[in-house]
Amino acid sequence: MAMIKNGFFAYSSNPTHCGEFIEEAIKEIHKSGHLVFLKSWKTMSIAGKFIISEILKEIENSDFLCADLTGLNENVLFEIGFAIGKGKPIWLIQDTSIIDSHNRFKELNFLTTIGYSPYTNSTDIVNAFLNKKVYLDETKVLNAFDNMSEGLINENALLYLKSQYDTNYNQYISNTITDFKLPTVIDDATEVKVQPVSWYFNQVQNVPAVLVEFSSTYRSGYELHNAKCSFVAGLAIGLGLKVQMVAEKPFPTSMDYQEYLKKFTNLELCKVAIVPFLNDIRTNIAQLIVKKHPHEESHKPVSELQKIKFGEYIAEHEASNIYEYYIETAHEENLIRSEYNIVVGRKGCGKTATLYYLEAELSRDVRNEVIPIKPVNFEIDGLIELIKKLKSDFEKGYIIQSIWKFLIYTEIAKRIYETIKKKPIYALTETDRKIIDFVNQNTSIILSDISTRLEQELTNLEMLEKIEEQTEFRNKISEILHESIIKDLKDLVVSYMNTRKKLVILIDNLDKNWKKENNIEITSKFILGLLGVIGRVSKELKGSPSKPNDFDLNLIVFLRSDIFKFILRYAREPDKIEYYNLRWNDPEILLRIVEKRVELLSTNKIKENFWDTYVGKIVDGIPTKEYILSCIIPRPRDLIYFINSAKDIAVRRGHNMIQETDLLAAHKDYSNWIFKSILVENGVTVSQIQKFLYNIMGESSILTKEKIEELMKLSDITTENNYVDDFITHLCGLSFIGREIRPFHFEFEFDFDSDDKNLILANKLNSNRYKIHNAFIPYLECSDFID
């Protein structure tokens, strides 16, 4: 006798009509005579509050889960994640007529690979449910993504989902994780708002613990971030991982998460929420890993395509491995030949990868001292307020450069001190002992983290606003920023390095302060001050021409090109600032990244050419490599994302090679991802950019200047004072649109400084037409490219 299948139906109380339609559909399904019984949360209401343990118990006891994605409700996403973790078949529905909700779903780009049934009424729900025979489906979602973790070596104890803004709270959390020495992979929403769902499936299956930092509801963008966090938290709990959810208040929820969620309103409460969890992981790490990865062999067959690995598309996620398959180009040699350099590049073009490569390459010689300075976050609000109060540009410029000099020298001293402390006592030289003694006498100035050092000096600098004379101002800064100590410190550093070969200082992460709530002009001048001071530090450390110091020096600053372009506005002589532009204008070199990663990362040996063996030759009538390059912004991050997506889709479909249909689907997936990325790259430049991009949906892929102006007005972006041209230039700088430089030939700006030529040619043609890049067309559903 056939058994009745039990299902749980998860949906949000808003919009209210969705719940009404679903409840009506449940009644109709029960009347249909099929051996199925559906239950919703409405039967479980306890005084308007829902106990998560009861909900999860109900899902666990059900044969399958149905869920409505409309509105991207956090509780519903949590329950979907939990059901997937428990191996339950899931069926998703969505009212796609609610445009804002559907746009948020597309922006999340989480469950698009799993699919959903659209509906606008209860009949649609009933028909889709019965036609798909959801109650007979035994598909486990995670099984389709098992290839992601095949061959993966687990090196991490923790997955940390970081909130979408750098705050004192997540800075404290990051520093505490470092202090606990827990190997951690960080999902940094300041870099990439949302990873592909396959990435999260991969990570949660290879860590024993997950820390999820939700966003307060008063912070912009909390809806998308918290939707992602809810899904991953539910997934991790479903898989039986150790999970801690934390949130800065206000963080209202209709669900009682009991032991899983801790809220805080200050740093002390944040510590209370974090420290016991991390301490427990550190104490029980061995048992947690054994529990997570029992020693048993898997007999699941693995295809040859499944064994191919391309690595991570974000350099921070594979810092320890990237040296092995880094593609060397001419610029690495140039960077270590010059005394100091400014490396400028777009997000995703390989700045951080270059830093990791140089750090690993130069550290191979033990005579080199390689010092990466990568502040997690400068909390410079106090500095901004202080500088705003100062009277003259002299005072502002002098204090900024003095602060940078203080921070760089103390960081050098800190790293050298840490190196010396690793030596056995008998190996210490006289200079080593002097440095240890000096640092021990000035611990608070040198050994604290960069942000703490800056904060404690700012407290002392507040008295400067009352000083009138420049000489007195300089003397007071000299006293406050310990210039006498810094001078002695510099002499000790030089003495130490004269017995070594090369001092390399690599400065990155300066974009962490580039956020809307900061005063952008002063933030620009703060970064500009670093560009001015690196030359002075270089000269001081090199010594005089008559008495040069006996070691080589390289000082390299890595800076995002959109930030660099912005800060040049405040430079007195911008044309005299020398920089190196990191670009990928050679397709062959870019494609070599895939080939080298396949060669070094895959568990199977690729005897023949990867492209000929595992990838179809033609897509949409053009050669595959040409098609891929036409679909992406030419950067390593984009290429690796695209090819990873194509391979994962092919494996889930059971293909033994990446076929044309897999590449077409990968284009759509990549398009969703790049749309979100452009919002991050936009930075602080145009606050209404998201609204503008959504208003482009359904338009032709070729836009006139008049149409752009019309859409700007619709998006509340000013069109006065020739701002239309500036806005178009900004869109070109994001590679979102290209200028028509010859009839029906549109040129895109992929490099920091290439648009000047395009602008001249476009003006001569005088067409005033612009084309949306192919990368964005599937997501925007342009009217001339609809499938």
Q: How are the SSEs placed, and which strands pair?
A:
Elements: E1 5-10, H1 16-31, E2 36-40, E3 50-51, H2 52-61, E4 64-68, H3 74-85, E5 90-94, H4 99-108, E6 117-118, H5 122-132, E7 158-162, H6 168-179, E8 184-188, H7 197-204, E9 209-214, H8 222-238, E10 242-248, E11 255-256, E12 261-264, H9 267-283, H10 285-292, H11 304-307, H12 330-335, E13 340-345, H13 351-363, E14 368-373, H14 381-389, H15 393-421, H16 430-441, H17 443-446, H18 450-461, H19 470-480, H20 483-497, E15 502-507, H21 520-542, E16 552-560, H22 561-567, E17 580-581, H23 587-601, H24 610-614, E18 618-619, E19 622-623, H25 624-631, H26 636-652, H27 660-682, H28 689-695, E20 702-704, H29 705-714, H30 723-733, E21 737-742, E22 745-747, H31 755-765, E23 769-772, H32 777-780
Parallel strand pairs: 1-2, 1-4, 3-11, 4-5, 5-6, 7-8, 7-9, 9-10, 10-12, 13-16, 13-17, 14-15, 15-16
Antiparallel strand pairs: 18-19, 20-23, 21-22, 21-23
Helix pairs in contact: 1-5, 3-8, 6-9, 15-16, 15-19, 15-20, 15-21, 16-20, 23-26, 26-27
